[in-house]
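Just curious: can you write a single protein's sequence together with how it folds?
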Amino acid sequence: MTIVPGTPLAGRVALVTGASRGIGRAVAVALARAGARCIITARTQGALEQTDDLIRQHTGQGATLLPLDLGDGDRVDTLGPSIMAQEGRLDCAVHCAGELGVLSPLVHLQPQDWERGLQAGPMTTWRLIRTLAPLLERAPAGRAVFLTDRHGRAPEPFWGLVAATRAAQDAIVRTWVRELPAHSPLRINLFEPGMVATRLRRLAMPALDMTSLPAPDAIAPHIVRLCLPGPQSQGACLHADAPVQEAST
């Protein structure tokens, strides 16, 4: 499947978190097929190597593998400077990494559940923004995409931890948008993939028929289009079934 015509991201550098499986892996492959040099990060070296193998199969070029636990804040803080030292630029960042957290009535959640959820969600998002912003803001057509979840806008029973951490992440991202200079070329958006056949979806809904859901490869092109140079939304929450130029600020 051709993701986009030609290689519109040729010469550009893209970072993808959570690239060891699921949507993150599919996005990394799709960005590489669009011409980007990819830096891929996740906890597991072996799974990153599998993603790298797919990228090589499709493009003949490998990715830069960066095994990293995003819960290690000190290491996350070094990400931007390390990319600058190695690549000299960063044009695009797609934050796909995430954890399901605990699905439970609010009164049954424990303090450690909240601490882990806040660390994996809004704290990691804030740290990524802080370390990557200097590079993305100086790129000629910087792009940042953060995956989100509908529960952040429409909480449901037992999903309170997910709802709270996603809502906090989204607020952080949209605050960054509003802090940009008026004429900044950087475009920052949220993307809600919906129900996709991923490991996290299976963990959340083990009785759900995964064959009825779209595969990550079907979602990746929508995210890649948000990374292209040219007119883009700004501060929007976009969906796989909606036009890319939806609801800008």
In short: The first strand starts at residue 13 and ends at 17. The beta strands are 13-17, 37-42, 64-67, 92-95, 143-147, 187-192, 237-239. The mean pLDDT is 88. Residues 134 and 176 are 12 Å apart (CA to CA).
